[in-house]
Design a protein that fits this description.
By secondary structure, this protein is mostly helical. Helix content is 62%, strand content 2%. The chain has 19 helices and three strands. Helix 8 runs antiparallel to helix 9 and helix 10 runs antiparallel to helix 12. The protein starts with a helix and ends in a 5-residue tail after the last helix.
């Protein structure tokens, strides 16, 4: 197979397989299953203001009336891991709730406004369409970015996106949680901005447009993603710095991105986090020391040591030890090469992983385990993983075929097991046992596609995506070796 044919096959098969894998995760759980999803669904349904039969006002400004199934979607199973998703839902009447963004505008409006376009009369259909859109958006944007980036930077995008995606990323990307867009921003913004400094012509324009889109996507979903977006832009500026007049002109883009982030950040009620003060429950010094010792729990939590959903879906050590091992191994492998610019950028991201959660915890007088969740720092972990690999020139990261196979196999097993457990939790509750998800099912979508079909299809698709990348990376390395060892005619 020629190099061109391999590239075409990989360009089609890998994104398609990843999309199928994410879609399987998107239907693995019912409406209301992601963290605080009742709040996010209420915010989506009311994103366009009062609408009869969808979002109605009451005499109380803090309360809205929404369709009963939207309000009650997670009422019976949230925090109860043994309970299947068989909540009795009132679809015929409007039910009052205070759970929504209308109360304090705690989240920027963009994510909710876009998701609201998919709201229909059927809750299940609406949620599946939203989740599918977010999965397609993730894959589509990263594919576009892949082909716009210089060849020497493309493997940074793939490794950075995949190395820490299991299980929190695979769960949240195809969800109606705003963190879905935060993950997408973290995966691509720093590379889009850095690539803009490197490319010319139409690709340069395309990368600028993608950088703007990714900033709007992230900062328009969560206020903390506005800050992470600024961090990503700063990383790109450090990595792409040049001493010429053209670069000074190119800095207009980072300035514009920071302005977008600031504007969207100020639309959120969470902007008060910078100045708010609360009473601490213990001494400042002891609180800092205690949280520093516990802080790694947030990082491993994003890789599976904390439960999925409402933290009521615990995952076995095989999942999170594998994910942690792969992420640490790849990042550590990348540290063998670097420049002062890389070390400066990596130090900045590392400082963010420590300072941001520590500041919030100390300000609130809390310890790790309350208040700050792993998904809040997860975007910075994605940026860290990508930046750690800067300086590597091959898609294989100079790893052997066996090393690549071990990494791909480990992530495949971790993803498949996490997907099965997440489905089991809602189909029968975690008190159910056995590999066969079709047996004794108490909940499933109204579709002829069975749970086992979804699990097997999603697991195989994810394995294919990883296998294609490993195959292409190793093929490219073999081609380079042949080119180097082949005598050149004089």
């Amino acid at each position: 197979m020629t190099r061109r044919t391999r590239q075409i096959v990989a360009a089609v098969l890998a994104p398609l397989a990843l999309l199928v894998a994410l879609l399987a995760w998107g239907v693995s759980s019912p409406p209301g299953s992601s963290p605080d999803e009742d709040y996010h669904m209420g915010s989506i349904w009311c994103a366009n203001g009062p609408i009869d039969g969808r979002c109605e006002t009451t005499g109380d400004e803090t309360t809205r009336e929404l369709p009963g199934d939207v309000v009650q979607a997670a009422a019976c199973f949230a925090f109860h891991s043994g309970q299947a998703a068989t909540c009795p839902l009132d679809e015929s009447s409007m039910v009052p709730t205070i759970r929504g963004n209308w109360l304090d505008n705690g989240y920027p409006p963009v994510f909710y406004a876009v998701m609201s376009t998919f709201v229909g009369p059927d809750l299940s259909v609406s949620i599946i369409v939203m989740r599918s859109f977010n999965a397609l958006l993730y894959v589509g944007v990263l594919v576009a970015l892949f082909f716009l980036l210089p060849l020497r930077m493309r493997h940074l995008l793939v490794w950075g996106a995949l190395v820490a995606i299991v299980p929190l990323g695979t769960f949240l990307i195809p969800s109606v949680n705003p963190s879905s867009w935060s993950i997408l921003q973290a995966s691509g913004l720093w590379l889009a901005t850095w690539g803009f400094f490197q490319q010319t012509g139409k690709r340069k324009i395309g990368l600028a447009a993608l950088a703007v889109l990714l900033m709007v996507i992230g900062a328009g979903a969560r206020s903390d993603s506005a800050a992470y977006g600024v961090l990503a832009v700063a990383v790109a500026v450090v990595l792409g710095w040049r001493k010429d007049k053209r670069f000074l002109l190119e800095l207009i883009l980072p300035v514009a991105l920071v302005a977008i982030a600031a504007g969207l950040f100020l639309t959120s009620g969470q902007s008060g986090v910078l100045t708010a003060e609360t009473e601490r429950t213990q001494g400042l010094y002891s609180l800092i020391v205690a949280n520093l010792q516990l802080l790694p729990g947030l990082w491993t939590g994003a890789l599976g040591s904390w439960g999925l959903g409402w933290f009521d879906t615990p995952l076995p050590p095989l999942v999170w030890t594998t994910s942690v091992s792969v992420a640490v191994a790849v990042a550590f492998w990348g540290l063998k090469k670097g420049t002062p610019r890389k070390w400066l950028a990596l130090a900045g991201v590392s400082a963010g992983l420590i300072v941001v959660p520590l500041y919030i915890l100390v300000r609130e007088g809390l310890l790790v385990g309350t208040g700050v969740q792993p998904r809040y720092v997860y975007p910075m972990m994605i940026i860290f993983a990508g930046v750690a690999l800067v300086g590597t020139r091959r898609a294989t990261l100079s790893m052997s075929r066996m090393q690549l196979a071990i990494l791909a196999t480990g992530l495949t097993v971790a993803n498949s097991l996490a997907l099965h457990i997440n489905m089991r939790r809602y189909i029968t509750g975690l008190d159910g046992t056995g590999v066969n998800l079709d047996r004794d099912a108490e909940w499933w979508w109204n579709t002829p596609i069975s749970p086992m079909t979804v699990w097997i299809g999603g697991s195989v698709a994810f394995a294919i995506a990883l296998a294609v990348f490993a195959w292409l990376a190793w093929s490219e390395k073999k081609t380079e070796q042949i080119a180097i060892t082949t005598p050149t005619a004089v």
